[in-house]
User: Fold this.
Amino acid sequence: MKNKTLSLLAALSLIVGCAPESELPTFSSVQITLDTGDTSRPTVAVSRTGDAIFWAWIRKDDDGWNVYASRVTEDGQDSTEPVRVNHIPGNANPHAQAPAQVEIGPEGYVYVAWTNSTYIPERRFPASDLLFSRSTDGGVTWSEERPVNSDAGGEPSGHTFHNMTTLADGTILISWIDSRERDNLGGSVPMESSASMNEDSPHTHEMQHESNLDASGQPVGSQIRIAASRDAGLTFVETAVADNSACPCCRTTMAVSKSGEVYLAWRHEFENGARDPVIARSDDGGLTFTDPTRVSDDNWVIEACPHAGPGLSVDDNGTVHVSWFTAAASGIGLFTARSNDGALSFEPKELLKADQPVSHTAHAQMAAGVSGIAVEQVSLRNIDVFASTDGVGGRTLVSTIPGKSPSFAGGGGVSAMSFEAQEGIVSVVWRSK
Assistant:
């Protein structure tokens, strides 16, 4: 693996808004190239104490697409040789908006969740199962993959656009967009012109909602489902359905507060066709969720899936931060909003980047009391990384890095962003001084 040290001093960076320079620490950093093969978007996880960093991604081999994982080396300057996670050859799907997700549990176990792909004649999109594997020896070996969704092996359907997190008690939570009920009601999308679809472009969906009604006459579209494991990934139980009318192709995102509340964000499809971000909260470890709160009334009406799920984090003060893309008439670009009452309401949105095409964001805690957000600049093929002091307005631009599709994670004063770059898939690791 190749790496290079970057000189990034937050105190010398461009100030955005009015964040005082003295409020932020300085950061040292290193850039690591993870893989240069035919790969898909990587994700990253940092342990709560900052002493472990793992990456996961999907790579094309002679036997198909496979999941790989590696960890940071002991000296923190490089990554270890990748280890294949899936045992069944080719049992993975390389989708930038449904990448292999990696998490580190409080006991040090490492978890990876990903989707496979099954071609179904006469359907526009393939079916998929959500799969899971764990490593109890620091990523040296991995368990055989097992399905997370309870209907695996039954009627083929979609289980994708997933996210994963862990709680302080070791519980693993996985969220995803599920199409089993929609498909059972005849709402699957026909195969027309699928070969020309770009996975990062908006996808047209003729959902025919009038025919997607359950036995009680209620509409059923794409669902947001959650599954939990309380035995370190040996078994999963589906615990909740948070939504019955989700945008079918905008990934879910979860975040956990220091006091244990679980937040789940996604893009909801409203009755008038608007697709705006919403968020729900669980106070019982993912067993139940509140009714979703609309983050911002953008009223973005679009007969397509923008493939741009929201970014989400909870800072050390308990403030909930959500970021998202919209092309609503009120303004096109990336926005952010925050809630100080447990996501029951949100302050007016703030502009991150104006006049952007479909773009993505990712959040992480970069240091104690310091929140970070990675903002994709698609037109410039760059990612801006901002830092802000919890409870203080304004953001400081820490770095601008060539790349796209960021994943961001942090813990213990260490943060890491993985992304796709011209040279392959890359990660930058920051350490606060």
Remarks:
- Confidence is low (pLDDT under 50) at residues 5-22, 188-199, 203-211.
- Residues 252 and 266 are 5 Å apart (CA to CA).
- The chain has one helix and 30 strands.
